[in-house]
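Hey L., structure's done. Input below.
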Amino acid sequence: MHSGIQTCHFVHADDKAGSVFLAIAKLKSSLAEIIEPDFGLLNDLLATNVLTRRQIATVRSKATVYERNDALLDLLTVEDQCKKFVEVLPQTKQEHVANYITHNGSQKHHATYLSTV
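Output:
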């Protein structure tokens, strides 16, 4: 008997695959304004293997929060890494950022649920 696990895939008008990577790339300038990297996010990204110690050091070396966010976002280069990044955001009270990304900057989206029954 199969479990009733459901998977949600977001489908956007300009992004048929629902790629988190593409959403982050598209929203990069806005995200650089709203992410808070300095109060746990970088530590959590290291702990979950989203970024390496060297990458974290590079981000932390930047002078302003905006430069740190630009550096952080530049390091998110593959889909799996981007998905983990979005999963970590709520751990640092940044659910609003995760929602902004998954809703593609508040644009309309459709959710498709695939069920293994």
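Helices lie at 20-26, 28-34, 41-47, 53-60, 65-74, 79-88, 95-102. The first strand starts at residue 6 and ends at 11.

-- N.
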